[in-house]
Specification:
homodimer, 64% helix, 3-stranded mixed sheet, CBS domain (chains A, B), Tetracycline Repressor, domain 2, mainly alpha, MgtE N-terminal fold, metal ion binding (chains A, B), Magnesium transporter MgtE (chains A, B), CBS-domain, Mg_transptr_MgtE_intracell_dom (chains A, B), CBS_dom (chains A, B), 23 helices, 457 residues
Chain lengths: 457, 457
């Protein structure tokens, strides 16, 4: 049977599976369910709810459930709940046979007591492996790597390498790269399965391996690791510790999740939310993710109002000035957000680094001037032909031009500054920069207006 | 030699390579340069400029240059220029040995005449292959797939499959999945190299292959294909035509670029730029990417000013009202952008579909009400304790609450509407929604103020 994902069809007969579970028809359930891809198994597993899941535990071994658990797409905070549905010994057995990186991701989400209750039931070798991985900081290469890789000694032959591969194939995360080490387990090279199968059996590994290995340090940031994958198109990258000893590998499927997450992350911050929730999140939780920024910005907005209070006399005299406030603050906010987006993405992708910061700044000042002058001319034209007032047009145009230049510089310079301080530049979220630019643009506008008050009255 | 990408070191000795080229030292240049990873070769190639590149053509064969061209990270518009540096026959030879998907990407960027000058020089088989791929629409599975895959008949044995693999290994994009077809070349299954190397040589492929293949239609959107990779963690996905015949495969390295592009794309649109340029783009080009939105929004801003003109009398009477305009329009803009970000990402990741649109809308209305009421209370409190005015506080609070609710609904509903019309919801860019929300929030505020004008005076 061929499946087609593009028709948005469900890949399995949900009702049938549910009925087989309720009927206690173990054999037929297993036949249908285990034939599915783990992703689809996991989708069904998430959907049916806790009561039906309790029947699934009776029908599947911990080994079989481990594959499903690796494919779950639930919030990190939900793992605790999902594990509590199982008996502790069943859950412990399942965790110990999961891919170590996935198991560690789950264990990381549990409170210590709960986690220890599982670790107590596992054999000491597995526990040690978990403890090592749990020690790495979140978002580092160490935290996302797996220890299930295939390595061989550089002095072995293609024949023995192929034998190692055949034995390790059921457990290893990938067998398409074999990492080559010396007798102190230091990384010295890499060879692909592709190269192995076209080489004669007696060839020595060290004669055909590539000794220019691109690797990641165990403490490297996961974004830097993602960049390696984007640049070099690898399927797996080895991870080494400070002694150059091979300690794990990172595979491309885990990196896809990292790339997706990081991009989502920058995006959320540009929009001023802590993270992009999905449609199933309830309104209270959704509101709690959005309120922090909104309330901080309310206070900033009150500062704007207070500063504008200084110009109340001017506004009182020439009420028409108020009409262009949203136009000016909006335009400055927009150009600031544009500059911000370019700077944050540039820093994230590594295109902007220490050396070309000044170049970027100069480019942004020039860009700000060009866009500012063009926008000013457009505004002067509109106001002149529409409102028949040259002086108001010139005032608004000048304010827009200055605001755009200032906003563009702020939008690119503030993230660079924050990045230099070692903070993720994406925290300089869009709304924050926008509100700052609001304040400066309005001050520029009303300041200019106050100076020209004689002409305006 | 081990290379470490995390130290941000350059992976090669640029000066040495440059000198070897200028000295005409072919042998030593080739020895150093060809030992590099194609990504690093490409980085050097981009950096040295056209004059030095002309020497490189003399030192490398078109086959060697093809690998470099596949790894270039230049703007699509630059390919034309790069190809014009070479002799036509050299360029044609290089294009014909590149991975077909990469070569087609390049050919797609050339004007017809230039493209035909290359195609004329290639053998008819290659030309036919290119013509087929060039016919697929951009951003579809057909446009990003490669035709260099390994397929075998379902009735062959593991032994013959391994022989096919050994022969095809140098040309195929991946040999880690072998796609199984019937005698009409219809896709019937898939088998991994992993499964092949652990099976005995006389086993029939059809007995060990997986017959539940997840595939993409040749006309499918590249975002849908990316979703398959995210869900199923595949290294390659087969592509079939309307008769279920296997026509190509898509590999994970190409999909990483798609995921990165699409996320960048949504991000740019949220910021109101046509795409995120890098630091090397000159100010005029950068300005031209930003001006379209800025100018459209200027016109929208003029509409805001005109509508506000209706309330000039009110503003004239109570100038203090103007002080809170930026606060109210800012807050409404921010909450609208938050709702927009959630809706656009939800649609992009497929989390929001036809069935749960109403659910999302209901969730957003509730979220808008909760955030609106809380923000209103905060504002009333601040204005009361700060400005000692309850009536202004109540007015601004009410306006903020209404604006947030309207902005939240608009932010989620407009992208859903646009998506239903078959347009990419990300075009409902952040600044556009923000400006719309500006208008409504100011109308709500000044409308309320006009009604209460008796109390305010």
């Amino acid at each position: 049977m061929i499946e087609n994902r593009n028709d948005n069809e469900v890949q399995y007969d949900e009702e049938l599976l549910r009925q087989l579970l309720l009927d206690g028809n173990i054999e037929e359930f297993r036949e249908h369910y285990l034939a599915l891809h783990p992703y689809d198994q996991a989708q069904f597993y998430e959907k049916v709810g806790p009561d039906i899941r309790k029947i699934i535990f009776l029908f599947l071994s911990p080994q079989e459930l481990a594959l499903i658990f690796e494919a779950l797409e639930i919030d990190n905070s939900e793992y605790e709940e999902y594990l509590k549905e199982m008996e502790t010994s069943y859950a412990a057995e399942m965790l110990s046979v999961m891919d170590t990186d996935d198991a560690v991701d789950v264990l990381n989400e549990l409170d210590e007591e709960h986690r220890d209750s599982f670790l107590e039931m596992m054999d000491s070798e597995t526990v040690e492996e978990f403890h090592e991985l749990l020690a790495y900081e979140e978002y580092t290469a160490g935290a996302i790597m797996t220890t299930e890789y295939v390595s061989i000694l550089q002095n072995s032959t293609v024949r023995s390498a192929m034998n190692v591969l055949r034995n390790e194939a059921p457990n290893a995360e990938t067998i398409y790269y074999v990492f080559v080490v010396d007798d102190q387990h230091r990384l010295t090279g890499v060879i692909s399965l592709r190269d192995l199968i076209v080489s004669s059996e007696d060839t020595l590994i060290k004669d055909i391996m590539s000794d220019r290995v691109v690797y990641a340090n165990v403490t490297a940031d996961q974004e830097d690791v993602a960049q390696i994958f984007k640049d070099y198109d690898f399927l797996a990258v080895p991870v080494v510790d400070e002694n150059n000893e091979l300690v794990g590998i990172i595979t491309v499927d885990d990196i896809i999740d990292v790339i997706d997450e990081e991009a989502s992350d920058d995006y959320s911050k540009l929009a001023g939310i802590s993270d992009v929730d999905d449609v199933n999140v309830n309104p209270f939780k959704a509101a709690s993710k959005r309120l922090p920024w909104l309330i901080i910005l309310l206070f900033l907005g009150m500062i704007t109002a207070t500063l504008m209070g200084q110009f109340e006399a001017t506004l009182d005299k020439v009420a028409i000035l108020a009409l262009f406030i949203p136009l000016i603050s909006g335009t400055s906010g927009n150009s600031g957000t544009q500059a911000l987006a370019v700077a944050v993405r540039g820093i994230a992708t590594g295109e902007i680094d220490g050396k070309n910061k000044l170049k970027l700044l100069f480019r942004e000042i020039s860009t700000g001037l060009i866009t500012g002058i063009i926008c000013a001319l457009v505004v002067i034209g509109i106001i002149f032909f529409w409102k028949h007032s040259l002086i108001i047009g010139l005032l608004v145009g000048a304010a827009i031009c200055c605001s755009i230049v200032v906003a563009t510089i702020a939008g690119s310079f503030i993230p660079l500054l924050i990045h230099k301080m070692g903070i993720d530049p994406a925290v300089a979220s869009g709304p924050f920069i926008t509100t700052l630019n609001d304040i400066t643009s309005i001050l520029i506008y009303l300041g200019l207006a106050s100076m020209l008050i004689g002409q305006l009255g």
